[in-house]
């Protein structure tokens, strides 16, 4: 039993067959008078009937292109066969063609009806699937757009919310001869940072983003781990950043690094974890093991800042070092220091000067010296790392205010237009006083100006403290033969 839609479609097929035949026959009558060739006009009629039916009849009857072409081909074959039988009798083959088409349609009625029913069922199923998918899409879009119940405490990839929450607990640290970053990590008023930030000062000053300033006491420090804890009694009972102790970081995790680079307060940079278990050898020869490598940029002043999980906002490491050439940051993972930190918070240790033998603290950091030789050399190395990574703006920020007043940024960056890479062949301390250190270096500049050239220079820089930051106060250079 056919549905009403199926019966209507079957009637349409009969009408379509008859109309197609009529179009074919009329075209044949016209063309045979023009071309005088029966065979040619039959073929031409077939082509023209097919085209006319596709553009005119197909949209009206809503059948497939195959049905249209099938009818046109049928009329072409039927008319050729019938005309050859009756051409000698001058009879008109068209009425007989109508009869043949009608008989064929009636005989094929069961097969066609089954096909139509299957087609209708399939179409309805597809329509339902499309409607279902659209409903799911609409529902998903509605959920994504509904952020009314999101809170900062819930896992989120909204970096701005995480940074805004975290920077309330991140502090700027000013010790005797250097600056750095730290963060509150418990309700005892304890602050985590790098040991090298406070290694020569047991009572550093810390400052929050809102300007509140306190003086703390170092209650634990390990120069090999490069981790230290500062206690500020006035901060007991205050909120703090949670440390991730249950899940280990994974390569590809999104992360956020917070710090105070070059005196800028609470700057957050985001990226992802590139590698785990990385071993480093710093410029002073100290080795750091099992580090987290990230695509976040860590600059001078950011040492000791927190490395946060980009979804939960929990601390997974302490920012410690950077490779400006490859724009990678390195952080100490939580599992490497958490036991030591917990011991210090429970049993505070008396502060001991943590300066290493490699830095020759006794010789080069006597009371009254503001800049260590290690720091001065590190500033110059970092300056050229910035040049090699084409970060001229960051390199320019190392210059002192007097130097900047004589050399604009555009002039500074233009001087490196043809520079591909600068290699430091040798670097050493030439002179020092209580406030500055003079660093000299032999460098090779790889340059190109239509052709590749290598030029050697002897450069000299005076490094000192300006506005609490290590700064290149003056500089000069000469070309070597």
From TrEMBL:
Keywords: Hydrolase, Membrane, Protease, Serine protease, Transmembrane, Transmembrane helix. GO terms for molecular function: serine-type endopeptidase activity. One of its GO terms (biological process) is proteolysis. Coiled coil: none annotated. It comes from the Bacteria. InterPro entries: Chloro_Bact_Ser_Proteases, Peptidase_S1_PA, Peptidase_S1C. Signal peptide: none annotated. The keyword Hydrolase applies. The chain crosses the membrane at residues 6-27, 39-61, 67-87, 94-112. The keyword Hydrolase applies. This is Trypsin-like peptidase domain-containing protein. It comes from Allobacillus saliphilus.
């Amino acid at each position: 039993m056919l549905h009403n839609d199926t019966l209507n479609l079957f009637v349409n097929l009969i009408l379509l067959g008859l109309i197609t035949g009529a179009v074919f026959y009329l075209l044949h009558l016209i063309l045979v008078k023009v071309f005088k060739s029966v065979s040619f006009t039959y073929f031409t009629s077939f082509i023209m009937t097919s085209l006319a039916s596709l553009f005119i009849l197909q949209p009206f009857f809503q059948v497939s292109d195959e049905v249209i072409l099938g009818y046109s081909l049928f009329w072409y074959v039927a008319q050729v066969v019938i005309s050859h039988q009756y051409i000698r009798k001058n009879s008109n083959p068209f009425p007989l063609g109508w009869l043949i088409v009608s008989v064929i349609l009636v005989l094929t009625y069961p097969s066609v009806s089954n096909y139509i029913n299957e087609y209708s069922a399939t179409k309805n199923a597809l329509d339902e699937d499309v409607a279902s998918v659209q409903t799911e899409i609409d529902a998903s879009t509605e959920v994504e757009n509904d952020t009314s119940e999101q809170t900062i405490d819930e896992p989120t990839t909204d970096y701005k919310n995480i940074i805004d929450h975290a920077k309330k607990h991140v502090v700027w640290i000013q010790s005797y001869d250097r600056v750095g970053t730290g963060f509150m990590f418990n309700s005892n008023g304890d602050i985590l940072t790098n040991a090298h930030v406070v290694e020569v000062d047991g009572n550093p000053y810390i400052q929050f983003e809102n300007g509140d300033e306190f003086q703390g006491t170092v209650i634990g420090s390990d120069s090999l781990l490069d981790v230290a804890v500062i206690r500020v009694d006035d901060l007991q009972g205050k909120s703090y950043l949670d440390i991730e102790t249950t899940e280990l970081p994974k390569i590809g995790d999104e992360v956020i690094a917070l710090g105070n680079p070059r005196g800028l307060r609470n700057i957050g940079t985001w990226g992802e974890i590139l590698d785990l278990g990385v071993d480093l050898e710093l410029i002073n020869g100290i080795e750091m093991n099992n580090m987290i490598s990230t695509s976040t940029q860590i600059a001078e002043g950011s040492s000791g800042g927190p490395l946060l999980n980009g979804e939960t906002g929990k601390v997974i490491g302490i920012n410690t070092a950077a490779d400006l050439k490859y724009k990678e940051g390195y952080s100490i993972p939580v599992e490497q220091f958490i036991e030591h930190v917990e011991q210090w918070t429970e049993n505070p240790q008396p502060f001991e000067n943590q300066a290493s033998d490699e830095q020759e603290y006794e010789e080069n950091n006597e009371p009254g010296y503001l800049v260590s030789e290690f720091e001065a050399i590190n500033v110059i190395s970092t300056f050229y790392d910035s040049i090699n990574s084409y970060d001229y703006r960051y390199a320019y920020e190392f210059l002192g205010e007097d130097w900047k007043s004589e050399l604009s940024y555009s002039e500074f960056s233009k001087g490196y237009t043809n520079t591909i890479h600068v290699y430091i062949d040798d670097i050493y301390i030439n002179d020092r006083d209580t406030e500055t250190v003079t660093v000299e270096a032999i460098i090779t500049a790889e340059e190109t100006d239509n052709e590749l050239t290598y030029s050697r220079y002897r450069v000299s820089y005076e490094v000192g403290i300006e506005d609490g930051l290590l700064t290149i106060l003056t500089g000069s250079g000469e070309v070597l033969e």
